[in-house]
Amino acid sequence: MSATGKPLIVVSGATSKQGRSVAASLLESGRFRVRALTRNAGSSEARNLATMGAEIVTVPLEPDHRREFAQAFRSADGAFLMTPPVAPPSADELTLGRQLADAAVEAGVGHIVFSALENVQERSSGTKYAPHFTDKALIAEHIRALPVAHTFVMLSFFYTNALEYYAPRIDGDRVLMPFYLPEHFRAPFVDPLTATGPAVLEVFSDPNAHLGASLPVVGDVISPAEMVDAFSRVTGLKAEYRSAHSREGLLTYFPELGENPLVVDEILGMAEYAVEFGYYRDDRDMQWSRSVDPGALNWEEFLRATEWRGDRVSFGASGQYS
Ligand SMILES: NC(=O)c1ccc[n+]([C@@H]2O[C@H](COP(=O)([O-])OP(=O)(O)OC[C@H]3O[C@@H](n4cnc5c(N)ncnc54)[C@H](OP(=O)(O)O)[C@@H]3O)[C@@H](O)[C@H]2O)c1
């Protein structure tokens, strides 16, 4: 800890939706200093973080930058680690996650909070393909074996997916909303921009209470049909569900995904996994995040807060599916 008495937390992917939320919550608490890692200190998101009081450090968030990673974690008390979206067949996410954790430990970081997901490979006995879940679980397994205090947060499906990656199609006066989930299947969803920070702030505020835990971060448990209804109610627009829960449906609404067939396999694998096995393991504490952040937005509150009316929104990040 520094002479200021405020612990220093390194936030990787600090301009991401999750990272921005974490950096903002830590800084706004007035109890932490933040070192924000980004590839581009000149982006508007990075400049916003600097204005809020974050120290900005430029680091390539990709494998094999051991020296830069070690520098980035020097004299930090804690680290929030996230991995950016990586399209299959790249194995970079797994490599990057392990290397970030190793670098944090080598630099003497006291507590790692990693944004993890469930092990789909294991839970589905190898029948579902969702490497961006399984690789995060394998990174978490690696972190468990390191000599460092650790906690995992596990974000639900993002509300923002519908705005950023799977935007509706406008057809006359109707808003057609394609979902990769079946119309009446209820799944956990969350706003990464406002819910990640309060959860991670809670962990760093009381680290001993959360040692080794894997904590879901949930804003709502809701079906696409209910999301479409809420959208109509809030916006006054006519809206209809469209199925992207099949290869044909997905490629009808998002033909660009066909450029990488493994991406299509992964989206369908992830959706089938959620339907058949549940997004989270049965023993996860689904109430934890709401208990520490009672104001977490449900879908309807998210719609009212963002005033979203069905247009495609860029959050200024990578612009990839995830
Ligand atoms: N979408 C979902 O429903 C969902 C649910 C749970 C978990 N997740 C996971 O959440 C992660 C994404 O989080 P997010 O949506 O908060 O991130 P995001 O908004 O897409 O931002 C990713 C950030 O990573 C940095 N970055 C560094 N190297 C990158 C690269 N090669 N490609 C893209 N970005 C790179 C970028 O910041 P700079 O340019 O400033 O370096 C960017 O701001 C993924 O691992 C995904 O699997 C997603």
Task: Please tag this protein with its features.
alpha/beta; 13 strands; binds NADP nicotinamide-adenine-dinucleotide phosphate; NAD(P)-bd_dom_sf; 7-stranded parallel β-sheet; 13 helices; NADP; 322 residues; disordered C terminus; NmrA-like; globular; 3-stranded mixed β-sheet
Structure description:
- It is a single chain.
- The chain is an alpha/beta fold.
- It has a domain at 8-156 and 191-218 and 278-295: NAD(P)-binding Rossmann-like Domain (Rossmann fold), CATH 3.40.50.
- Helix content is 40%, strand content 18%.
- It has 13 helices and 13 strands.
- It has a seven-stranded parallel sheet with strand order 3-2-1-4-5-6-11, sandwiched between helices. It has a three-stranded mixed sheet with strand order 7-10-12.
- β1, α1 and β2 (33-38) form a beta-alpha-beta unit.
- The radius of gyration is 19 Å and the shape is globular.
- Residues 317-322 have low confidence and may be disordered.
- Residues 13, 15-18, 38-40, 43, 46, 61-62, 82-85, 117, 132, 155, 157-158, 161, 192, 315, 317-318, 322 line the site of NADP nicotinamide-adenine-dinucleotide phosphate.
- NADP nicotinamide-adenine-dinucleotide phosphate binds at residues 13, 15-18, 38-40, 43, 46, 61-62, 82-85, 117, 132, 155, 157-158, 161, 192, 315, 317-318, 322.
